[in-house]
Amino acid sequence: MKICGPKLSLCGLIISVWGIIQLVSMGLFYYMNSVALLEDLPIEESYDDAKKFYADAENGYSMNAYNFVICSVWDYRIRQLLRMAGLTDGGSIFTSEFGVNSNSLQGVEDLGQTYDEGASNVADESLDSGVGESGLNDSDIRESDTVNVELMTSDLPRDILDNDLIVSDDDNDPRNLLMENEDWKAKERHVFILSSSGKPVYSRYGSEDKMVTLFGVMQALVSIIEDSDDTMESIHFGNNVIVFQRRGPLILVAVSKKRDSVVFLNNQLTYVYNQIVSVLTLMQINRIFKARQNYDLRRLLSGSERLIDHLLQFHETEPSIFVGGISCIPMPPSQRESISSAIVSTCSKIKNLVFAVLVANNRLITLVRKKRYSMSPSDLHLILNMVASSESLKTAEIWTPICLPHFNANGFLHAHVSYLTEDTQACLLLLTVDQEIFFQLSEAKMKLTERLKKNNSISVIDEVLKSPPSTWLSLHEIGVSKIRHFIYKCRKTYNVLSSPLQPPYDTPEDANKLFTKYQTTYFNMMDSNPQSQGYYQDSPEESVICLITDKYEILVAMEPLMKKQASLDLINRLIQWIQKEEDKFFLSNIPYL
Amino acid sequence: MKTIEGKVVVLGAQGVGKTSMVVRYIGKMFSHHISPTIGASFFTCNINKGEIRVKLQVWDTAGQERFRSMAPMYYRNANAALLVFDITHPSSFSSIKSWVKELQRNVEEPLILCVVGNKTDLESQRKISREEAEQYAQSIAATYFEASALNDSGIEDIFLCCADGMVTLSQDKLVKTLRVTPSMNGRSDRDGQHDRVVVDHPTATEQRSPFCC
Predict the structure, then answer these.
(1) CA distance B135 to chain A (A)
(2) Is the distance from CB of B177 to CB of B75 less than 8 angstroms?
(3) CATH code that applies to domain A170-317
């Protein structure tokens, strides 16, 4: 006999809709201070003072009204979040949402027990009936300062789950169309930013306007956990991870289906947050939200989305970023020095010039700074990101404010940005605190170009950029051809050296796979045990080894099935070679202006 | 030969084609995929008007809202302002009105105003009529132009008009921000000194005033 047919699900639908109506109307009655509900208020049995009684009663009414409204919104919206979280694999949709609900809304349960439990549990059961029991129990939420919600993946067939979902969602709602979009669902990493009042700020894919409800859910999740003095950090289920970061008035959310480590995703979100600060300054963000909590930050960020898009891409594909260092263009050390000294001699008389940075192809050529100031790698990455994502720089000189969060999160520096000549990749940035000296900088840049032309530096830079990477670094010539790829970071100078991507990593997909593996290895190691020095991960495709010492960090991809000792010997040989040749690859001496 | 050096600032909402216009005029090219300007781009160009060479320093500003608060830095001491809007976007037309108000409040010296309706190649989607824009331009004593950076129509006239305006302005003794160099050999020391002070430190006059009054 069929019990799980359309009639039952229709019945379930009606009951669940009724549940929402009931919750809303209860909220309304409480809001209107209905006397019939006085019994359910959290007030004392007897009062001596009428005033105190009124105050308590009013307080109780408004609290209950608030709880009921949240409860009903929660009831409807949590399904959407769970759907989003499941993205493509319907298998990870779980069913007993009210496990979270009743736990985090303890007050509601105590007060409106009959209504809340009655309505929601019936709705709940009706949804569950076809699926069986699964999902999370109260015990899954650990009572600690930070919450990591572990959710179990349901093993049930996908079609049953999908049917189940149709019951709970209005598929004709155009706002849901985006979440139905296969392309959108297929994306492996999502990033969302919203304000603490739930206003959308940014979504990596698709238009924020089409996922207002989704942003609402995220806001609800974060704020409900915060209400119980906890912090929502991450949700895990199957291969999926959702990481939350609260930064002042902003909430940043990363969703990944790639089994990424929480540390990696947090690192990515921190970069995104720094990018926003770099565009607006922290002071401006705080001031805006202090004045108007529901401000739509997209107004100020319009045109800057591409900076964030590019940064995310950059963060995932550039080895130096996730190890937190800087990679330089290889060059004979004397050549680099002559460029630096040309910059120093042209710019040293300019008052208030803080940094002069010469970059090309997302890498550093040289950096000159004022005494007492230093440039952090992550600030430099923001600069590289700006240069790489702004085509318009190529045609003219640019004069723009930019905030470097590690240098000073509350103020702008002013940057004169221009390519040295029209046909070179080398881009010069002069950063100053004085907004009046554009013409002085422009003149200095012209002089510098002349000097660099004269001493041949520009053609040297062009040659280096054109030459194949193997002229500088060939694993075969070093005699470690069993090493397929490596990333090396000097811990003292933050310089990073990585080998060119060669087969089998020469396609973007394969490179991406390798980097994901690196990221997991690296961040797991950072996360789990700061004392450990090495990490070895073997798989049929390759072995990934990560070594961390006081002096350096190295990530290596080796041919699989090698003996551990043999691998370590090769790595040692490689490290010795790097330490011998590092002058060419590293910017070890940062001259003062 | 006399040389006049003046500052032109290009203002307007995001995506109306400010950079496309300037690049079309100075670089003689057009790109469909131009990325949004950050801060402001600086260009120079020379226009010969008979015996006078006019050197325009063009500041092509970013239309993004976040740079709005930086705008005074770019339009300070300007001699001409190009107010660009997109004829298919009414909101970009209202945004030039607020730019005009801001300029009127903050710029004390005479300013050549040009209102430019860009994207005439999208005539079929036009939302702002020529008459409406002309009427508005008249009310603020500006010249109205229609242009298309895509088809390269009407753009040259705008810059020529700026150059003409500068020549007229240069005859006004009260205009201090224009840098006039009589001729290479006939230039007196005193004149050269005076001009340089004004241009190399564009804030010299500006900085003093708030504290005096």
Answers:
(1) 30
(2) no
(3) 3.30.450.70
